[in-house]
Amino acid sequence: MIPRYLVDFDVAELTKLEADVLIIGSGIAGLYTAIKAAEDRNVLLITKKALMESNTRYAQGGIAAVTSDEDTPASHMQDTLIAGAGLCEPEAVRALVHEGPEGIQELIRLGTAFDREDGELALTREGAHSHRRILHANGDATGYEVVRALSEQVAAHPAIEVWEECMVIDLLTEHGECIGALVQRPDGERLYVTANATILCSGGSGQLFRYTTNPDIATGDGIAMAYRAGAAVRDMEFVQFHPTALCYPGAPRFLISEAVRGEGAMLRNIHGERFMEQYDSRQELAPRDIVARAIVHEMERTQATFVYLDITHEPPERVKQRFPTIYRTCLSFGLDMTTDWIPIAPAAHYMMGGVQTNLYGESSIARLFACGEVSSTGVHGANRLASNSLSEAIVFGSRIIDRLHSLPPLAGHTLLAYGDNRAELLASSVVEERHRLQETMVRYAGVRRHGEGLQAALDELQGQMPIFKAAVTSREEIEFANLLTCALLVTDGALLREESRGAHYREDFPKTDDSVWHKHVQQRREQGITEECVHDI
Questions:
Q1: In the 8-state DSSP scheme, what is residue 386?
Q2: Distance between CA 406 and CA 397 in Å, rounded?
Q3: What pLDDT shows up at residue 257?
Q4: Final residue of a structural domain among 282, 316, 347
Q5: Which residues are named in the active-site annotation (predicted)?
Q6: Are 219 and 356 in contact (CB under 8 A)?
Q7: 339 and 319 in a common domain
Q8: Are strands 307-310 and 266-268 parallel, antiparallel or unpaired?
Q9: Contact between residue 373 and residue 82 where contact means Cβ atoms under 8 Å apart
Q10: Region 294-316: what's the mean pLDDT?
C-alpha cells in the first residue's frame, strides 16, 4: 500500500511558518489564484522551479471563452459536453462557459495582451469547437504571455511571498482537515507551513509517458500528495494525447498547436495521402482522441513512425504571423512549415482526471482546494475540449476565493510526527526507474489499451514499490515516488473501466457502454477504488 507520508518527520524538530493561504504551483491557476487571494490575505506561493516555469508557459493554442456576438455560452457548453463523451459535470461546464468571459476581462486588466484585429479580440477555431472562440497572444505563445503578465503581478505584490526551487513533499492533515504542508528547501532543509487554506495548483503528470508535450516538472506531485493525504481522486484513466507533436530526429516532442489545424492544416500519411475523412466526418477538426487514434492507425498501416501535418497551401506570411513560435522552432531543426510538411505523432498532453473538487474547488478534505490541471472539477469529462484548460483555471480560481471568505480560522493543532523507519537504498538509480516507468506506461497505458497489457503494467509498477520504503531526499526521488503513485492510479482506473470512452480506448472493449459505465471512477488511499454517478443536465 502507498504510505501516508513519503518521509519520516517530527514537526517539533522543524522550523514552522504560517500563512493565510498556501498555494502550491505557479502556472495560470497558482498565479491567478494568488493574486485574487492577496486582495485581503497574506499568501505564500511555493514552486519547485522558477516562477515562470509551468505547463501554462508552453500552452500555444489559446483560451476558450465566448467573446463574439456570433457565439453563445450554450454553444460552448454543447461543444464541451460532446467532447467530454458523457462524463462532464453539467453544472461545472455551465460555470465555465458563463463565467469565462469575465475571467478574460480580468486577465486583460492584469496585463495580458491578447492578439487583436482591427481593434477587436482576434479569435480562432480549434478542433471540436463550433465557433471561432479561441483567444490567443503573440500568435501561438498564449501561455507564455499569460504567465508573463501574472508573474509580474505576483512578484510585485506586497502580500505575496514566493519561494522558488522548493519542493513540497506532503500535505499535513489532522482531524480530517489539511493544516499545511511539509516543504524541502534547495539546501535540503525541511520545514513546515501551516495555512488557513491550502490550494493545489501543481499541474499535470505528462512525465508518466516517454513522449509528452509537458516540461520535465509535470510529475503529478499534487495528485499524489492529495491521494496520500486521503483525498478522493477521480477519472485518472483519462489521459489526453495531443495528436500533433513534432516527431523529428534530435527534436523534443514540441507541441504543434491545435490551432494549426484550426487554420486549415491537413494530415497526410507517409505516402502523402489525406486520411482523416476515413475516420470522422469532421476530419482534422475532430476531437483529439479520435485524431490521435487515427494517426496511430495510419502509422501502423503504413509502417511509419509519424504522419505529416501540411499547411503549405496557406500564404507563408500568414503562417509566420499566426504561428511565430512554431515556425521558429521547426526552422531551428531545418523544417520550414511554409514549404515543408511537418512530421508529427501523438504525445501525452493533459490529465482530465485529478483531485476531485466541488464547484468551489474544495476537495474531499477540509481546507484543501485544487485548481487547474491537478483538479477534477468535472469540466473536461472523458476528453478535454481544446483551450478549455486555461479558462477552467481562472473560473475556478475565482470560485475558490469566493469560498475562502466563509472559511473559519484554523484552530490550534497538536504536533505531528510520522515514522516508518525508512532506511533502504534504491537498488537502481532513480533516473533508470523513471525511464522504466515511462516505458511501461507508453507500452501498456497509452493511446490504445488492453486488459492483459494493463495488468502487465500493474505488475511491472508493483515491482517499483520499494521507493516507498526508501529514505528519499532529492527532488528527483520525490518526483519519482509521485509519478509511481499516479501511474498506479491511471492503470488501476483504466483496468477497471471496461469500455472505450473519450481519451480511454480499450481494444478489448471498443464500444462505449452507457448502461454500465456512465459514471466516474473514484480512488482513495484507504477506501480503494469505487464508482460514482454522473449528474444529469
A1: T
A2: 15
A3: 87
A4: 347
A5: 288 (proton acceptor)
A6: no
A7: yes
A8: antiparallel
A9: no
A10: 96
Q: What is the mean pLDDT of residues 202-223?
A: 95
User: 456 with 434, same domain?
Assistant: yes
Q: Once rounded to an integer, what is the mean pLDDT over residues 75-88?
A: 96
Mean pLDDT of 309-324: 94
Residues 251 and 373 in one domain: no
**For residue 166, what is its C-alpha cell?**
522548493
| pLDDT over threshold 80, residue 338 | yes
Q: Average of pLDDT values for 222-235?
A: 98
Could you list the residue range(s) of the whole structural domain that residue 219 is in? 9-238+349-404
Q: 369 and 341: one domain?
A: no
- The reply to whether 123 falls in a domain is yes
pLDDT tens-digit series, residues 40-72: 999 999 999 998 888 788 777 789 999 999 999
109 tagged catalytic: no
| Cα angle 114-120-122, degrees, rounded to a multiple of 5 | 50
482: CB partners within 8 A, 6+ apart: 219, 220, 221, 223, 224, 225
Question: Predicted confidence band at 412 (pLDDT cuts at 50, 70, 90)?
Answer: confident
Q: How many domains does the chain have?
A: 3
| DSSP character at residue 412 | P
CATH number at residue 485: 1.20.58.100
**3-class secondary-structure state, position 255:** strand
Against a cut of 0.85, is the pTM above it? yes
Locate cell 459514471: which residue?
Answer: 519
Summary mean pLDDT of the chain: 94
Grid look-up 495488468 returns 455
Instruction: Show the cell assigned to 267.
Output: 494530415
Alpha helices for 422-474 (secondary structure H) = 430-444, 451-462
pLDDT in tens, 90-122: 999 999 999 999 999 999 999 999 999 989 999
101 and 159 belong to one structural domain: yes
**pLDDT at residue 518 in the model:** 96
CATH code for the domain in which residue 271 is found = 3.90.700.10
- Residue 223 inside a domain? The answer is yes
pLDDT at residue 536 greater than cutoff 70:
no
Q: How far apart are CA 10 and CA 325, in angstroms?
A: 48
SS3 content of the chain, % helix, strand, coil (to 5): 35, 20, 40
Catalytic residue chosen out of the listed positions 41, 288, 384, 525: 288
In this structure, are 342 and 249 located in the same domain? Answer: yes
